[in-house]
Amino acid sequence: MLTVKDLNVHYGGIHALKGIDLNVEQGQIVSLIGANGAGKSTSLNAIMNLIKYTGSVSYKGKDVKSTKTMDLVKAGLTLAPEGRRIFPNLTVTENLTLGAYARKGPEVAKDMDWVFELFPRMEERRTQKGGTLSGGEQQMLAIGRALMSRPELMMLDEPSLGLAPLVVKDIFKIIRTIHDSGVTVLLIEQNAKAALEVADHAYVLEVGKVVLEGPGRDLLKDPRVQSAYLGE
Ligand code: ATP
């Protein structure tokens, strides 16, 4: 569904991605783990055409290098950014409505009902300003907003960042539910354990390169992953 080949990104003199290959099959959950600065967010931003890159990205069999971000969203590819990137001065409902900017009509209301079903907390707080939500709630809103574009492939940027363990558990439960409803997922995470447990396939990124890949279950048992990312 998504194939990334030889992805390179430079920020001025910094070579942030040094030839990354990734593959996401329809129906999978794929995780990308790595330490701070490994290039995880850069990878997703490049795929969404938010930054310049060399190499190739194809989505549903089509090269999308010259496809505008908005048109990628219309084609079912969405990025749920890290939670604090919601609109702080807009209400929960307004934030969600913006997620459906490419669409109109009764379908949008139906999708909002689905988001409220997934996140009852968002329904309770529908008139509250995004900026006044807790960290976990803002993360739920960011995921909810991305869902409002009806993604076929949803990319999530560190959905568990800064959240309490119980909330992290909830977020991963929701990711599974979203996946079970038919959405393919590409997840980037610093929480390696949770990300590998949920992943059909996973990649380990170190300073701009993929250094390991395999089924999530296998990587959980890999001694290199255990000592570097699982604190074992
Ligand atoms: P984190 O988990 O800390 O968010 P990450 O794996 O997502 O890390 P990136 O944000 O992709 O890492 O950053 C990769 C590298 O590129 C880092 O060294 C970072 O400092 C650098 N970088 C990222 N964005 C920019 C930018 N706009 N200008 C210059 N350098 C950047």
UniProtKB/TrEMBL annotation:
What InterPro entries does this protein's entry cite? AAA+_ATPase, ABC_branched_ATPase_LivF/BraG, ABC_transporter-like_ATP-bd, ABC_transporter-like_CS, BCAA_Transport_ATP-bd_LivF, P-loop_NTPase
Q: What is this protein called?
A: ABC transporter ATP-binding protein
Tell me which Pfam families the record gives.
ABC_tran
Family the UniProt entry places it in: Belongs to the ABC transporter superfamily.
User: Which processes are annotated in GO (biological process)?
Assistant: L-amino acid transport
User: From the Swiss-Prot or TrEMBL record, what is one GO molecular function term?
Assistant: branched-chain amino acid transmembrane transporter activity
Alphabetically ordered keywords of this record: Amino-acid transport, ATP-binding, Nucleotide-binding, Transport
